[in-house]
Every structure is written in C-alpha cells, then in structure tokens.
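Human: I would love a firmer grasp of how sequence relates to backbone shape in proteins. Could you go through the record with me and say what the backbone is doing? Here is the record:
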Amino acid sequence: MGWRSGRRQSGQGMVEYALILVLVSIVVIVILLTMGNQINNVFSNVVAALGA
C-alpha cells in the first residue's frame, strides 16, 4: 500500500503544477488583452528606433 500513497502524492503534485500553469496563463492573457496596444506601440517604437 505504501507505493500507492507515493504515487497519489506525485499525481497531486502534477495537478498542482498544472493549476499553477493555468493560473499564470490566465494572468498573462488578461495582461496582454488589457495592455496589448501599449505593448504593440513599444515594439513599434523600438523597431523605428533601430531603423528597420
């Protein structure tokens, strides 16, 4: 029975990592949606400054 509890804890750890990744992804998507135009302007300014 000992190996089963170890496997369950390992699976639980994977679920926790997956939940953290989902939360980080949601935060990044929200930031990009709210600040997308500003970020686009920054990149445009950098490209213009480089003369490309």
In short: Residues 2-50 form the longest helix (49 residues). The chain has a mean pLDDT of 84. The chain has one helix and no strands.
